[in-house]
Amino acid sequence: MSSGDRRSITYQAVLLYIALPLLFSIGGFLMRDLYAEVKTVRTEKLDRTEFYQAAVLMDKKMDLIIQLLRDHEANSDN
Predict the structure, then answer these.
(1) Where are the alpha helices (DSSP H) in 1-78?
(2) d(Cα 33, Cα 54) in Å, to the nearest integer?
(3) Could you tell me the residue ranges of all domains in the chain?
(4) For residue range 34-52, what is the model confidence (pLDDT) as tens digits?
(5) What's the rounded Cα separation, in Å, for the pair 2 and 7?
């Protein structure tokens, strides 16, 4: 048995038979997951009032954080 009789697998074969199907299956899984999330968002839309209430609460929290930072800076200067 010489070295020419040995079978070897080429990188093209690996790419064709292993890597591409793996990439397609991962891509399909991710697309299905994304589609499910989009469908969930469409079915469970936020009402406008809920959205604005959440935005107002976030704004109030940001104001409190800014005020706390200003108070901390004022206290650290003294």
Answers:
(1) 11-14, 20-43, 48-77
(2) 27
(3) 8-45, 46-78
(4) 888 888 877 777 677 777 8
(5) 11
35-to-11, 27, 56 alpha-carbon distances in Å = 34, 12, 30
d(CA 50, CA 46): 6
User: How many Å apart are CA 72 and CA 78, to the nearest integer?
Assistant: 10
Joined tokens for residue 16 = 């064709």
Please, what's the b/e burial string for 18-50 (b: 16 or more CB within 10 A of its CB; e: otherwise)?
A: eeeeeeeeeeeeeeeeeeeeeeeeeeeeeeeee
Q: Which value, to the nearest 10 degrees, does the dihedral of the CA atoms of residues 72, 73, 77, 78 take? A: -30
The pTM of this model reads: 0.41
